[in-house]
Amino acid sequence: MVFLVQATLPPAAFDEATIYFGMIPIVVRDIYPAPLPWLPDWATLVTYAFLHADWLHLLSNMLFLWVFGDNIEDAMGHLRFLVFYLACAVLAALAHLAFNLDGNGPLIGASGAVAGVMGAYILLFPHARVFVLARIVIPIPLPVPAFWMLGFWVLTQLFYLVIGSQESVAWWAHIGGFVAGVILAALMRRRDVMLWGGR
After folding, report:
1. Are 157 and 175 in contact (CB under 8 A)?
2. pLDDT tens-digit profile of 31-51?
């Protein structure tokens, strides 16, 4: 819903919205004044997660949330899952901030929070089968254990960090969100939900 509002804005207003509600490290650290005086600096640690750069950014996050989120919500309950999701967003933003102390660009997107959901999934349902599209000659859906699929995703994020990728992707937010998800899932799961899928 937030992105639909964003999408109706002219380009200049779209950019302004990301500056107003995105998480800017030097603003959160109170080095630079907040663009919106009535919005507390810390509030953007949450609001950034509801903004996206474009349709691809939004839909890729929503796809991963759709695939992994329902099982984690079942494992925690509705209210606890909401708290978990928002906490992962905040911790992902803090991880980004910790490694970009002088950053002056806005962090936006639900990727950090969704990475937290993925971290919870690898802890609680590592043996569940996830279908991935493998392109051999034509794309073929192959069932892969979640542990391998999500493990490969984490290694990809670490690889891009190590090589110092110049893409406008918040790799530390992804890693921070994932780690937060693993830790919080262990603490917030229902008592009858076993770690590692009960194995």
Report:
1. yes
2. 999 899 899 989 999 999 999
Handedness of CA 76, 79, 82, 84 (dihedral sign): negative
Q: Please name which of 16, 17, 34, 36 lies closest in space to residue 25, comparing C-alpha atoms.
A: 34
Selection from 3, 197, 177, 157 nearest residue 96 by Cα: 177
Whole-structure pTM over 0.90, yes or no?
yes
Which residues partner with 134 through β-bridges?
140
Q: How many CB atoms lie within 10 A of CB 29?
A: 13
CA 47 – CA 107 distance, rounded (Å): 10
**Partner residues linked to 144 by β-bridges:** 130
3-state secondary structure of 143: strand
6 near 19, Cβ under 8 Å?
no
Record the tokens describing residue 172, joined without a space: 């530390």
